[in-house]
Write a structure and sequence with these properties.
The complex is a heterodimer.
Chain A lengths: L1 E3 L3 H28 L4 H9 L20 H14 L1 H8 L1 H11 L2 H7 L12 E3 L15 E5 L2 E12 L6 E7 L5 E7 L5 E4 L12 E12 L12 H33 L1 E2 L2 E2 L4 H29 L5 H26 L1 H4 L5 H11 L9
Parallel strand pairs in A: 2-5
Antiparallel strand pairs in A: 3-4, 4-8, 5-6, 7-8, 9-10
Chain B lengths: L1 E3 L3 H18 L2 H6 L32 H15 L12 H9 L2 H7 L4 E4 L15 E5 L2 E12 L6 E7 L9 E7 L5 E6 L10 E12 L16 H8 L4 H26 L15 H28 L5 H26 L10 H7 L10 H13 L8
Parallel strand pairs in B: 2-5
Antiparallel strand pairs in B: 3-4, 4-8, 5-6, 7-8
Chain lengths: 365, 390
């Protein structure tokens, strides 16, 4: 049945996240960006809310809520309306966690999930992106070579969130047949070196690291999903929908900031919002933010039902990336010179939008 | 629960509609090239076939709401052709107005007729307060004088609901709607309009020349003129609330046909559309196609959203304009883009793509242009009146 109705529980998540975004994310966003740091207090307090552990089964110390990509999408939109960098930071370890919840063997779940349910923020990260131009997750250069009862990983990964702090990496590599395979790699494994942080255009506050894998040996047991491997499409789809949800929140932030500005700013005897050239930029923002959100919801609902969401996730991701960029761009235009000044958050959103639009694997629903 | 899955019952209906649509499509070119003809009330193939309406019974609470399903049905119909149907449904826009604004007696008297709606004039479109057609009271009658154009189902309708002003000084408040039956002296169907697309569609021009109708023909029966602006006018505007999503759905059915045709042609040429891969692993044509497909999906979702709100009995005024604006701009880009992808083949009259490109262009114009929708949306989100944002 076609329905746009979040459950009561989801409405609660939504309103809680909405308040959190306004009270805990937005006020920190500018300084976090300027200082390229996620405040430790912020990580601590959001960790205590159980955002990462809530969907981890109780048996491993988690909250035991059922796995819900639609809830994830609602949560990300709300938090990202506060600030995208802080939103992704608070949820960063869930990319690793949800990959294991969805696809880990019982043994892998038993071994790696409890550490993500502790009292202190714990970093573990997906290592997917590689430094080549126009990175395509289906053309990986990192290789995994079968050697006896183990695998040997070689390659370079980049844009690994909290890579500097992570205890474990989920490394995606191309196996001997050119098929994608994922491996859980402890930071201290022989041949692993981490460099960073890597400075970025947007999401400056979020620390990204570069990971070098120089013939890193991984035991067979640490191949995600066991000998049969894992569902790479699902991992990518979850990430694409999450990044799209983040951009919906960002777009809403732009719209909600530019509307009052345009009503207050007077030129030639009336508010600039009273001029169609400006008013139509704002109505376009309203149209597209809605359209973007429904695309995200559709893809998320397919993930939730366990169906192949590749088409919906692809369309949502590419559409949202383009529209969010346009919205952030117009946000600056509505503010004029002020849009270019770092006193207003719009230039920050402009940089965030471009950055989020090209990332992969930085978030999950 | 957030869900975008069609149930078995939903699919049964939609499959049946699409099957009928494909039959209708066989006649599309003929009626496009013979603008003077009207498609028949039912095609020969309709004989002995149960209509899809028979499948609308026995629906469960788990099935998609009727407004949302209605939009999907509409899109599935125009996916076959804009004008030709296996069976034409009775009624016109004027019937909706009669249902919304007519008195009990008026509904009983005229409900069985097919009624067109005449608002637009040579000098007024988006701003109906500029209606120049006059209704002058003369004893127990009103005398109508003026021209109406772009009247949908105007040639074949049995009558029309026409907007006219009873007091030009009063602006919007002076506008009333009148029911005029065909055959009333002074009511002339001047011509069937010649158009860029939707040529098989019945679009008429009317002339009212000293046309006398009884006072009882004033829709709703209220002869008073509201002092504070827009009283009776608003009542009429309200009837537009579910038609904006429908108009978007009509257009999107056509652009979906264009996309499906383009995908088939690309496939035959060995160009595959792949989902989930990076831009570097995709041909430029496939990349362009995916952009169009995403746009189409985004627009259709806004239509479903507006209809879903109606199913929930929630106000959908803003969302109706959102989906109309989004649909109107999308269908233009999609059909233009499909021709761009297919090149010269796209403009050949051997195929229907060039027709869809022409047919769909009306979507962003009628039932409020894209710009009018943007005005409505902007006023809503800015909290402005129509005086503050003009």
């Amino acid at each position: 049945m076609i329905s746009f109705e979040p459950t009561e529980e989801q409405e609660l998540v939504r309103s809680t996240a909405h308040d959190l975004a306004a009270e805990a994310l937005r006020p920190l966003a500018r300084d976090a960006d300027e200082e390229s740091t996620i405040p430790a207090d912020f990580l601590r307090s959001t960790w205590e809310l159980g955002l990462v552990s809530s969907q981890i089964p109780e048996a491993f110390g988690g909250g035991g809520s059922s796995r819900s990509p639609t809830t994830g999408a609602l949560l990300l939109e709300e938090l990202a309306a506060g600030d995208a960098a802080l939103a992704l930071a608070a949820l960063a370890p869930s990319v690793f966690a949800m990959a294991l919840v969805d696809q880990g063997t019982p043994k892998q779940q038993q071994r790696y999930l409890p550490q993500l349910c502790g009292r202190e923020f714990h970093a573990a990260a997906l290592a997917l992106v590689e430094p080549q131009p126009a990175f395509d997750p289906h053309a990986l250069r990192t290789t995994a070579e079968a050697r006896g009862n183990a695998w040997v990983l070689k390659g370079t990964k980049t844009f690994v969130p909290f890579g500097g702090e992570a205890s474990h990496f989920l490394v995606v590599a191309s196996d001997d047949d050119g098929k994608p395979a994922a491996f859980i790699v402890p930071r201290e494994a022989h041949g692993v070196s981490v460099a960073g942080p890597e400075p970025t255009l947007g999401l400056r506050a979020l620390p990204f690291a570069r990971l070098e894998l120089a013939s890193v040996e991984v035991p067979q047991d640490d191949r995600l999903g066991g000998p049969n491997g894992f569902d790479y499409a699902r991992l990518l789809n979850c990430s694409r929908v999450a990044l799209a949800a983040t951009l919906v929140g960002l777009s809403r932030a732009v719209m909600e900031y530019t509307i009052p500005y345009a009503k207050e700013r007077v030129a030639f005897g009336e508010a600039i919002a009273q001029k169609q050239a400006i008013a139509f930029m704002l109505s376009d923002m309203a149209i597209e933010t809605d359209a973007m959100r429904w695309m995200v919801w559709k893809a998320a609902s397919e993930l939730e039902a366990g169906r192949d969401a590749t088409r919906s996730a692809h369309l949502a991701r590419s559409y949202v990336a383009e529209q969010a960029m346009k919205i952030a761009d117009n946000g600056i235009q509505v503010l004029g010179g002020h849009g270019f000044i770092r006193e207003h958050p719009v230039e920050l959103w402009y940089r965030h939008a471009r950055t989020l639009g090209v990332l992969e694997g930085t978030a999950t629903v | 629960m957030i869900d975008f899955t069609l149930t078995e019952n939903d699919n049964k209906v939609l499959d049946a509609v699409r099957e009928e649509s494909l039959i209708a499509r066989n006649y599309a070119r003929h009626y496009d090239e013979h603008e003077e003809e009207f498609p028949p009330d039912s095609l020969p193939e309709a004989k002995g076939r149960p209509g899809f309406y028979s499948m609308l019974g026995g629906r469960d609470l788990e099935d998609t709401g009727m407004n949302v399903l209605g939009m999907l049905i509409t899109a599935a119909q125009t996916w076959g052709d804009y004008s030709v149907r296996l069976r034409r449904s009775a009624g016109g826009l004027g019937n909706s107005a009669l249902r919304a604004a007519g008195t009990q007696a008026q509904q009983q008297k005229w409900g069985h007729l097919t009624l067109a709606m005449a608002i637009t004039e040579p000098g007024c479109g988006s701003d109906p307060s500029r209606v120049k057609t006059t209704a002058t009271k003369d004893g127990d009658h009103y005398v109508l004088d003026g021209e109406k154009i772009f009247v949908t189902t105007g040639c074949r309708a049995d009558g029309v609901v026409a907007w006219a002003t009873v007091d030009a000084e009063a602006g919007r408040a002076g506008i009333k709607s009148f029911l005029v039956e065909k055959g009333t002296p002074g009511f002339v169907v001047v011509r069937k309009e010649k158009k860029l697309g939707i040529r098989a569609d019945d679009t008429a021009a009317y002339l009212f020349d000293n046309c006398r109708v009884p006072r009882e023909n004033l829709l709703g029966g209220d002869e008073s003129i509201a002092k504070d602006g827009s009283g009776g006018f608003r009542g009429v505007m309200k009837t537009f609330n579910m038609t904006r999503p429908a108009v978007a759905a009509i257009g999107l059915g056509i652009s979906q046909a264009a996309l499906d045709f383009t995908r088939d042609q690309l496939q035959q040429a060995g160009i595959e559309i792949r989902y989930g891969v990076g831009a570097a692993s995709q041909s430029a044509l496939a990349q362009k196609f995916l952009e169009l497909e995403a746009m189409q999906e985004a627009a259709m979702l806004t239509v479903m959203r507006a209809a879903w709100l109606a199913d929930k009995q929630a106000s959908n005024n803003l969302e109706s304009s959102i989906c109309k604006a989004k649909g109107g701009s999308t269908v233009r880009k999609v059909t233009q883009g499909c021709i761009e992808i297919l090149g010269p083949l796209g403009v050949s009259r051997e195929h229907l793509l060039e027709k869809w490109f022409r047919d769909v262009r009306i979507t962003d114009i009628y039932e409020g242009t894209g710009q009018i929708q943007n005005l409505i949306i902007a006023r809503a989100i800015l909290g402005y009146s129509r005086h503050e944002l003009r």
